[in-house]
Amino acid sequence: MTKGEDHPMAGKPNRAVIFDLDGVLVDSTGVVERAWRWWAEEQGVPVAQVLAIAHGRPSRDVVRELTPHLDGDEQARRLDGWETEHSEGLIAVPGAAECVATARRGPWAVVTSGGRELASERLLTAGLPLPPVLVTADDVEHGKPHPEPYERAGRALVLAPASCLVVEDAPAGVAAAKGAGMMVIAVSTTHEPDALREANLVLDSMHEANAQLRKHLA
User: Fold this and answer.
1) What residues does CATH 1.10.150 cover in the chain?
2) Helix, strand, coil percentages in the chain from 3-state DSSP, rounded to 5
3) Which CATH architecture has domain 29-85?
């Protein structure tokens, strides 16, 4: 056989796509907000104050910021457990399956602020494949907006930051990916476009994002 012929990676580009999970691949907004409302009411914290900072960040960091007297890791486990038990209404974001199919032409990853068990369960519930590289809150010391999660994904993919295109939906995630030196497409599925202006490109949907992913991997 000629070198490279019929190799599973033959002809595939030396570029990768990295997805955020919630709001990008999986529409979990209802599930997440129900969990935070439950937690906020239990702790006596204004719900609006919680929801204003909860999206796109590790739960433990949100807990530490709002209730520093509580154990952030313990509360994050409680929230993850609640979300796993009450996952009704969770579906794939329209266009996400097509974007994953495009990304699978080359190396790809998912970077999420949730825990590993919760992230895997959400992907499977939404009918999406598990990625070869999955970076979760369990794997990092510093969550988004710190660049560590995306830096870790780039190292696992063995690619330079400039070869990685990130798809995000939250300002914290955009900041993390930009801090890691990666290009970012933001989709306004969770936040208004103006809140995502630090991204290289802001789009309305994952359907639109798919065309950009095709160009990146061409």
Assistant:
1) 29-85
2) 50, 15, 40
3) Orthogonal Bundle (1.10)
| Whole-prediction pTM | 0.80
Q: Which of 116, 51, 121, 57 is nearest to 84 (CA)?
A: 121
Q: Which two tokens stand for residue 30?
A: 């209802």
- The catalytic position among 20, 27, 80, 169 is 20
Asked if 22 is an active-site residue, the reply is: yes
Q: Per-residue pLDDT tens for 152-162?
A: 999 999 999 99
Tell me how far apart the terminal alpha carbons of the chain are, to the nearest angstrom: 26
Q: Is 61 a catalytic residue?
A: no
**Reported confidence tier of residue 11, pLDDT bands at 50, 70, 90:** very low
Segment 23-38 mean pLDDT: 89
16-28+90-217 has which fold? Rossmann fold (3.40.50)
Q: Which of 6, 22, 61, 139 is catalytic?
A: 22
